[in-house]
Each structure stands twice: as structure tokens, then as C-alpha cells.
Design a protein that fits this description.
Order of helices and strands: HHEEEHHEEHHEHHEEEHEHHEEHHEEH
Number of strands: 14
CATH class of one domain: Mainly Alpha
Strand order of the largest sheet: 3-4-5
Distance between the termini: 21 Å
Oligomer: single chain
Structural class: mainly alpha
Shape: globular
Strand content: 5-15%
Length: about 400
């Protein structure tokens, strides 16, 4: 298939659009609705085997927020299906009842019946809860959900800005580091919350600050790379953590920035920034021997210490499929059509489960399935259905 027939030929665009749409509505979403809804204890049981059997009853707060966001967003953007809205409320009720500690922070995981299990030093449970509250508030008209979203978002900002509220990863007197994941997640969380706020000023400022931090501190032109961790002032740290690249994370940040450029009347500076990140990290991430996107790289070419560094995870491919299609939509540059086809084809050849539906999450470098589960505390109904929804809607714009 040529580039033209992939994204310029009307019939092929329609076929591709149908693949994303039908994959979402007839495969991914039914799999999770059928197997994960916990009618006895509330919320969603996400740790599932290949065929949907529950293999662990513990519940990650990330997944409660993510699935609630998805269901609410589908209700708003696809169809006002009462089942989706009812299930979104099912998720909201569980989060409100069991997700929060007494200090306002959120747990990372709880038992099936909501007893707290683990609390981490990160703010990602909060970020996915903000998205869930905001999307549910938009779908349902629940004013309290919108207010809760803003309240949790402001709590996130407080914990990120005030020293010592979040325990550091390293002994700060010896060395301090900060990660790309924080400004990245702040961009998209603010983007989702902005959709339900009357005054976007506060959210725009957070987005501006987060994008500036990525550009100033994490982008390193000397390496043509976006680092995963840097010193607090953005300095390069010549250690395992400081040299590490996670192409999937940076590519995800790239499409958040590209999406912001569109939102701001096709802001050219943001567009070029997002495209630069995407160009750099596609080159770093693509496995020239086996295809697919490698999980970690070392910016100096040294061995990476994490043993899963050369595996192929589902979510970087989901993010790269979105990013390349969005880049092509914005620029009509055929190199992004080529990248999109290359990544899409590799992912769809290796990740989908033809027998039980949905996608495997973890592959060996050569594309063989490493573990056949469909859900755990990290993998659930989020990256894949978000990719299917985003790409479906992008292709709608090709009319």
C-alpha cells in the first residue's frame, strides 16, 4: 500500500476510520464492559486474563478514573448511550467513596471492596480523577463533579509546588531529579479540565508553564532527544536515570502539544515544537531491526539498566499512532503518513488478540507475546480506546 492509498485515497481513509471506530465500539469497549464492571463492590475490576477472567481483585485508582473518563467522553462525543453514563457514575461513586485519603491525596490501589492498599508519591491517581470528574461533569451536567475536578487539580498543583509535601525519590542533599511525566500529565489534565471551565485562564497558564518546562529543561538539542529525567534546573545528569529516554512518553507529550497548537488557532510555534519532539523521538524509538517502538534508550548509547528496555509495550504504539496521524492532519507532510502507516501496521500485526478481542500489552522485542493478560494496575481501558477514538475523529476531518 502506498502512502497515497493509506491517507490520501478516500476508500482507504474510510477503511482506516472504520477500523478505529469499530475496534473501539465493537471490540475494546464491549470487552471491558462485559468483564470489568463490579456490581457487588462498585467500580471496575481491571486485572483480567486474556479471556476476561479476573486474575486479581485489587483495583487501581488510575483505572477507575481512566475508564470513567472514557465512558463519559464517549457519551459526550459519540452517542448519548444511557449505559455509558450509568457506568461512568458507577466509577465516580467508587472513586468518591474509596479513592481519597484523609489528607485529600489519593490512593494508588485499593482492595476489591475499597480498603486502602498503597499510596504513592506521584500525583497520577489525582490526574486521572480530575479527568474523570471533568468528563463526567460535562456528560451529566453534574456541577459538583466539575467543582471536584477543579479542587483536585488545585491540590495537585499545591503538592507539586510546595517543597517536602511529596517525598523525594532521591536523597535531596545528594542529588535531585524531576521527571518528564509531570509536565506531560499536567498539560493533558488541564486540557480536559478546561473543557468544563467558564474561565480558561488558570488552565491555559498551567499548560503554558508545563510546555515551557518541557522545552526549557527536557529537550536537549545536542542529543536531538527529550530526556525522561533531569536535574531540577534542567541540567543533564550523566547517570542511568539521567541518560534514559522513554520515546513513548515524549511522543505522548508531542501530540498533547500539537493538539494545543490546534486549539490556539494553529499556533505555529507550538506546532513546530510538537513536531520537533515527535521527529526526534520517532528516530530514537523505532527499532530498525525488528520494527515497533523500544521502551527505553540511553541517550549516549550505553546499556540501559531496566531489563524491559527492549520490549514492545502497547501504549507507546497507541500514542505514536495518534501523534503521527495528528501531525499529518496538521501538516499534510507525507513523512508523517509513512510513519503512521509503519507504526500502525506493526502494532496491528502484533498486539491484537484474534481469539478474545482487545490487545495484548507486553511483547518481546521481536513481537512475540510475553504475557497474555489484558489488564493489570497499569494496562486497562485507556490508551487503546483513546487512540481508537482520537484517530477515528481525526479521520472524520479528512472529508
Amino acid at each position: 500500500m502506498s502512502i497515497d492509498s493509506h491517507l490520501s485515497n478516500t476508500e482507504s481513509i474510510e477503511n482506516l476510520k472504520g477500523l478505529y471506530r469499530d475496534g473501539l465500539l465493537n471490540d475494546t469497549l464491549p470487552f471491558w464492559i462485559k468483564h470489568s464492571v463490579d456490581r457487588k463492590y462498585g467500580g471496575f475490576t481491571i486485572c483480567l486474563d486474556r479471556d476476561g477472567r479476573v486474575i486479581d481483585t485489587d483495583k487501581g485508582i488510575w483505572s477507575q478514573g481512566r475508564f470513567t473518563w472514557l465512558l463519559s467522553t464517549l457519551y459526550t462525543e459519540v452517542e448519548q448511550n444511557p449505559e455509558w453514563l450509568e457506568l461512568a457514575k458507577h466509577g465516580i461513586d467508587f472513586i468518591r467513596k474509596y479513592g481519597f485519603d484523609d489528607d485529600g491525596r489519593m490512593y494508588f490501589s485499593v482492595t476489591q471492596d475499597g480498603k486502602p492498599l498503597r499510596k504513592r508519591r506521584y500525583i497520577f491517581s489525582e490526574s486521572f480523577t480530575v479527568a474523570a470528574f471533568a468528563a463526567y461533569g460535562k456528560a451529566s451536567g453534574d456541577v459538583q463533579a466539575k467543582e471536584d475536578a477543579l479542587s483536585v487539580f488545585r491540590l495537585m498543583q499545591r503538592y507539586l509546588s510546595e517543597p517536602c509535601l511529596l517525598p523525594p525519590k532521591l536523597i535531596p542533599e545528594t542529588r535531585s531529579m524531576k521527571g518528564l511525566a509531570v509536565p506531560m500529565i499536567m498539560i493533558v489534565t488541564a486540557q480536559v479540565l478546561r473543557e468544563v471551565m467558564d474561565d480558561p485562564g488558570e488552565l491555559n497558564q498551567v499548560i503554558d508553564d508545563s510546555i515551557s518546562e518541557i522545552e526549557r529543561d527536557f529537550m536537549k538539542p545536542e542529543f536531538k532527544a527529550v530526556l525522561e529525567s533531569v536535574a531540577p534546573n534542567g541540567d543533564f545528569s550523566d547517570h542511568f536515570d539521567g541518560r534514559m529516554l522513554c520515546p513513548g512518553h515524549a511522543i505522548e507529550a508531542a501530540w498533547f502539544i500539537l493538539k494545543e497548537s490546534v486549539h490556539r488557532n494553529h499556533d505555529s510555534r507550538l506546532r513546530e515544537l510538537g513536531l520537533t519532539i515527535l521527529d526526534w523521538m520517532l528516530e530514537w524509538g523505532w527499532d530498525k531491526e525488528y520494527g515497533g517502538i523500544l521502551y527505553y534508550r540511553d541517550v549516549k548509547g550505553f546499556p540501559v539498566q531496566e531489563y524491559w528496555q527492549d520490549m514492545k509495550f502497547w501504549w507507546p504504539h497507541n500514542e505514536a499512532i495518534i501523534a503521527t496521524l495528528l501531525a499529518y492532519t496538521i501538516t499534510k507532510d507525507e513523512k508523517y503518513a509513512l510513519w503512521h502507516k509503519k507504526i500502525h501496521d506493526w502494532a496491528y500485526q502484533h498486539f491484537p488478540d484474534p481469539e478474545n478481542g482487545e490487545w495484548f500489552g507486553y511483547l518481546h522485542r521481536d513481537g512475540r507475546v510475553s504475557v497474555k493478560l489484558k489488564g493489570n494496575l497499569w494496562k486497562g481501558p485507556f490508551h487503546l480506546p483513546r487512540m481508537q477514538l482520537e484517530c477515528w475523529k481525526l479521520l472524520e476531518s479528512f472529508r
